[in-house]
Write the structure tokens for this entry.
Amino acid sequence: MHKEKLVFAQLVEFLNADKFRHIVDKHQGNRYIKSFTCWNQLLVLMFGQLCNRKSLRDLAMAIGAHRGKGYHLGFGSDVKLSNLSKANTNRDYRIFEEFAYYMVGKAQSKRMGNIFKIGGKVYAFDSTTIDLCLNIYQWARFRKAKGGVKIHTLFDLETQIPTFFHITPAAVNDVNALDVIPYEPGSFYVFDHGYNDFKRLFRINEIKSLFVVRAKNNLQYKAVRWKRKMPKNVLSDSVVIFTGYMSEKHYPKPLRRIVFHDEDQDRKFTFLTNAFSLDALQVALLYKNRWQI
């Protein structure tokens, strides 16, 4: 555990303790607290994540076995399972959420670049399911014998940093998470085919954000304009309008449809996008970077 402690001490140096204290004061996180403050709680949970502790009990026992060193790492003098459990249950989650987003912003500013050179930030959005024990978390049922939650993550492709998280029960359809993304006008958002919800995509278009989404095979459309000369591996590049009743109703404007052949996988991909200023290879590259993540 000595190596983990050295790494942990280096990580803590990057934290802005004054900013965290300001957030705690705003939410009155340390009100009536005599020991095991919000700062102690933050460092203990960070240490548990770094050391891959499997439970709060496991974490409390690991710290208790090295109590003297834990105090000097900022854990405080009263790290017990009961205190840790009570703090996680009763304290305002917004303290840690707000500080996490503050640190994400700081990390982004350190890695800002212009890799894609398309005049805006580029984000990928997707979800992953974390299994939970149904005997304990009965509210998390999403199959007959399985429970879980979904973490919906917005990932900055240029800085390689996740910038937004949304947690739902696993039974919630992925497209519902599109409603809570903090869209930025002029930025690009890349989605897989599970996010073909044209009502929500049209909302993205109306706030002047740009999207690239992998199209489903059963799309009903009519091409109104297309390019004759196309670069290598671009099989089609056209402007289309929807002909299906619901899709036309929910997305009443033209979209761009691009068909691209990926030689590495020997697969054909079809994309829909409202980014008319990009060339077809740039659109394919955006999705390829999302797929690699």
Notes: Residues 213 and 219 are 13 Å apart (CA to CA). Residues 2-103 form one domain. The chain is about 35% helix and 25% strand. The chain has two domains: 2-103, 114-120+172-292.
